[in-house]
Amino acid sequence: MNDHTPSVLIFDEAVFLDSNGTLCDPCAWGLTRHHPVRRDAQGSHPWCCAKRMSFMSPLSPSRLADLIAGGASITILDLCLPEDFALDPRLIPTSVRMDWTALEASGRVITVCQRGLKISQGAAALLCARGADATFLDSGAIGWAASGLPMIPVENLPQSGLWTVADGPIADIADWILQGFLHGQTLLRVEAEVAETVAERWDAPLIEDLPSFLDAIGLATPALLHVVDAAQNDCAPLSLGRLIKAGDPSRVLDAAYRALRSGGDL
Prior knowledge:
This protein is of the alpha/beta class. It is 33% helix and 16% strand. The chain has 10 helices and 14 strands. The strands form 5 sheets. The chain has a 4-stranded parallel β-sheet with strand order 8-6-9-10. β12 (162-166), α5 (171-181) and β13 (186-190) form a beta-alpha-beta unit. The chain is globular. The termini are far apart.
């Protein structure tokens, strides 16, 4: 195969993208929807220079919420144009902002744009051509918000990506929330007597009250508030708080959260 010939993706009957995401002329490569191959100069030895892609099934907001809540190994890319994102600067939990012109991802990927149209569908198709298991969010960020699902206000996230918590009863719960619902956020778990000074020096907001923390990051959902309340109660012999202290906090909190949440919500 000629190494200079682009890998070409056909994601409908008329649109062809090369491996750089650039529209190309199918006739120039001898491609049609019936014969996606090209022959050499002698007209023999056909080799495939295109891959027919079936249309991707979009992911509904409720299904994506189930995947997030279940701890699925997925990457959610927020590809909203800057001007669109500025209209509602909030993120779907676990998602990461990315410039659609610098698309990089692998594994299981869900792409999100404002309405689930040209940016997210084109990005998902291109990622599929590169070997990822990609699809897009139906109706985009607008559809997610219209479904009443929680979103994270970026203005309430520290630029440092750091948070501080005093080692103690709430530390395990705060770490579970950050790991499960926010991308790229790190928890500084320190001694109580230095927590305030660490928070100030490292530009890492101090988490002191978990319901207030959940409210600030847009995740004060009934299920998460119930988990937080139960996890801080260690009076009863079989309380969630006692189970956290006795075992793996993440596994205990995961089990409690999945038992308390409603399907299709967070």
